[in-house]
Amino acid sequence: MSEECTHDCSNCGAACSSRNAAPQHDAPNPNSSVKKVIGVVSGKGGVGKSMTSALLACAMARRGYHCGILDADITGPSIPKLFGIHGRAMADEKGCWPIQSRMGIDVMSINLLVENEEDPVVWRGPVIAGAVKQFWQEVVWDVDFLFVDMPPGTGDVPLTVFQTLPVDGIVIVSSPQELVGMIVGKAVQMAQMMHVPILGLVENMSYAVCPDCGKHINVFGDSHVDEIADKYSLPVLAKMPIDPELAKEADAGMIEVFAGDYLDNAAQTVAKLLKK
Ligand code: ADP
Known about the structure:
Blueprint: E1 33-42, H1 49-62, E2 67-71, H2 79-83, E3 91-92, E4 95-96, E5 99-100, E6 106-108, H3 125-137, E7 142-149, H4 156-164, E8 169-174, H5 176-179, H6 183-193, E9 198-209, E10 216-217, H7 225-231, E11 236-242, H8 244-251, H9 264-275
Parallel strand pairs: 1-7, 1-8, 2-6, 2-7, 8-9, 9-11
Antiparallel strand pairs: 3-4, 5-6, 9-10
Helix pairs in contact: 1-9, 3-4
Bound molecules: adenosine-5'-diphosphate.
Adenosine-5'-diphosphate is lined by residues 42, 45-51, 76, 78, 204-205, 240, 242-243, 246-247, 250.
């Protein structure tokens, strides 16, 4: 607890004088072994954060790393659907076990715990944040890389993730539209406040390719990712197009068969974390 505070700083959120201190992370399940934790964040929903988490985990799995995805987007969980996973996660005396995808990626999501995956999660912020903590403290993770698909924005739950998990780096996902705003700036500032390194930016839905002539069409206007990356001295890890094939595989729960290499550069950056 910080000296100026009159309350428990670990539960109080961002408006606290202790927020500039390096967070004290929670211990994982004692049976877990996690080498690196990578957060995938975005300023708002629908920009492809879950898609990026899933594709990045697939790219790393193809490189021979054992990966997990912790779906911290409790109110909008989409990771199981991308992988076509519909089972119920089981628990024993060691803890709760993630469900493996076809490729062997370990997945934990609220959708693997609720009776009916269509049921909405109508919980208040602290309860949602508590569920994310449990995904770290009670699930047995045995992975090289754990990707955390964060809820969008800079609110209560992302804050809990940063406080609870020892995040080694984050990838910021944005769309061209959104990049012109302050969104990246907010994510950058939050990461800095939480002492988390930023690995770089992924611009999703950057462009579409005309199926007839191959011309790139800037559906959401011109890209500003390079300017923004310069402003914050961050690398651009990928400019991922709107790809109908990708959308089709995602909708069919077959994200693992998608052969595109849009995130190879990002995967290379993530892999370097283990070589350090
Ligand atoms: P978020 O996690 O940011 O809310 P999602 O990853 O769930 O966003 O993506 C939103 C929707 O857009 C999903 O239906 C997803 O399949 C689709 N999508 C995301 N990125 C692409 C892309 N590059 N090409 C085609 N469809 C995409």
